[in-house]
Amino acid sequence: MHLQLGELSTIIISSAEVAKEVMHEHDIIFASRPKLLAINIISYNATSIAFSPYGDYWRQLRKICTVELLSQKRVQTFRSIREEAVSNMIRAIALQEGSVVNLSKEVSSLTYSIIAQAAFGKKSNYQEEFISTAVDLAQLVSGFNLAEMYPSVKILERISGMRQKVERTHRRLDEILENILTEHREKRAQPGKGEGKEDLVDVLLNVQKSGEFGAPLTDSNLKAVILDIFSAGGETSSTAAQWTMLEMIKNPGVMRRAQEEIREVIGERGNVDESRIHELKYLQAVIKEAMRLHPPLPLLLPRECSEQCEIHGYEIPAKARVIINAWAIGRDPKRWTEPENFIPERFLDSEIDFRGTNFGYIPFGAGRRVCPGISFALPNVELMLAQLLYCFDWKLPGELKLQPLDMTERFGLAVRPKHDVQLIPISHNPSGKYSGKRIDP
After folding, report:
1. What residues form the annotated binding site for heme?
2. pLDDT in tens, 117-135
3. Short-list 371, 380, 297, CA closest to 109
4. What are the residue ranges spanned by the domains of the chain?
5. Distance, CA of 378 to CA of 117 (rounded, Å)
6. Where is the binding site, in residues?
7. Which of 90, 118, 328, 369 is positioned for an S-S bond with 78, CB 3.0–4.6 A?
8. How would DSSP label each residue in 279-339?
9. Residues 6+ apart with CB under 8 A from 410
10. Which is the CATH superfamily of the domain at 2-435?
11. Per-residue pLDDT tens for 344-355?
């Protein structure tokens, strides 16, 4: 589908076959990002992993991300952070047993806390301030902006006030990030203080100091990467967890089967051990199915055509924007049986995964621009859902039982349910482990 959005020629891809041409056969031609006003500001002039143009700098960042920041080995070092944070959430929910719990707020707070601790360490003085400001900035840039569609009409930037709002909030965030970098450098300069467990800022500072990945990285480059990981990882994990819980409430048979699996595997330990997650095949299928129906980014981040080319028999001009409609592809009746129904069983004994090798299922994208944070986001989602289903049975508040669940979407940095997920937890805890006090990080 071709759309003329203001001055911008935009092509929407809604089939897996054409998406494969764009993200596999002609991947290099479509590997760059278009320049976007608000995004350029918050990504430090498009120097983040998600938004930097395709080229040597992007390849350098991608290598740092996959080798140093978000490798499987590195993600495993944050296991204790995940387990501690999830345990604290379970304890907080247990104190509200029988009452309505805003699960959206609980899982959102959890995911941001995990990422902030992984990025900055457990004892950063700026964690809460950073989370609050970063969320404000994400909400600001996710709204509609007419100036983006008419980039040559500069007066629209002033009329909308978008540039001033984004720059003002970004300055606040930049000051916080500067303080975090200073905090880490001062700690590392103290004898014996830089030898403990590394967080992501420590890793980036090591890379910056070594210079082994190519061109020197500036502090602005480090800040762009930190903000990228936080924004993408937090929203993706939180959104996936909310939709998965909502779909299971709508399909109680699915929830029962997932709970039976978890409780059989875990037994009466009172705690889901992350090392056992790989045994929860049905839960993993449930998460995949939820992300088929509700990809966090229904429209993947835009790509820019670097040169004129032919896709599926159509000429695509240079500089055209191409957007992959992951939502439509995930519901294509040509590829999926009963595409509008929630059927996790379709993923049992299936080789389809999250990494974009099957172009009919691309919640994290595919090709060179596939999201590098999959290995970081998924353990958060799997562990929190496993614990929520192991420790509690769930039911709707009385006033919602007699009406169909509202599955309307709310657009933002990621697409969440329009209304917060509000549920009542009923404890199912053989060992009584979660009746105690909170564990402080």
Report:
1. 371
2. 999 988 788 989 999 998 8
3. 380
4. 2-435
5. 17
6. 371
7. 118
8. G-HHHHHHHHHHHHHS-SSSBPPPEE-SS-EEETTEEE-TT-EEEEBHHHHHT-TTTSSST
9. 416, 417, 418
10. Cytochrome P450 (1.10.630.10)
11. 999 998 999 988
